[in-house]
Amino acid sequence: MARLVKRPVLVYDGDCGFCTSSVRFLERHVHAGATVAAFQFADLDALGVTAERAEYEVLWIDRAGRVSGGAEAIGRLLTAAGGPWKALGVVMRIAPVSWAAHGVYRLVANNRHRMPGGTAACMLPAAQRPGARGRAGR
């Protein structure tokens, strides 16, 4: 069931150095007016998402509570930012560009531990990462 939110929300993996660096870049350069939250500290139930999905991909929850993940989420974030970002966000959500965006997103997500800022912890499921304290059930 979709849950209304006051502002769009971008949910990411806060334990992943590459993910965190990417989100910091977006916060500095792409102003989408969204709340940004690491899934480890977000109220996922209130957002209508599972920890498993949040661990698998970045999520965008719009004001109507609709959830998008992966490349679609990034496209929606860019669209919400407006200006030149909007055109890029719209284009990357239209086939065949969306197919390529999805493929690139999965390639990067599956190899994020190899990306700049990535760590070996990025390879592990959230519950098995160093310092994990029962987060998998969140």
From TrEMBL:
MF GO annotations: protein-disulfide reductase activity
UniProt cross-references to Pfam families, sorted A to Z: DCC1-like
Protein name in the entry: DUF393 domain-containing protein
Organism placement in taxonomy: Bacteria, Bacillati, Actinomycetota, Actinomycetes, Streptosporangiales
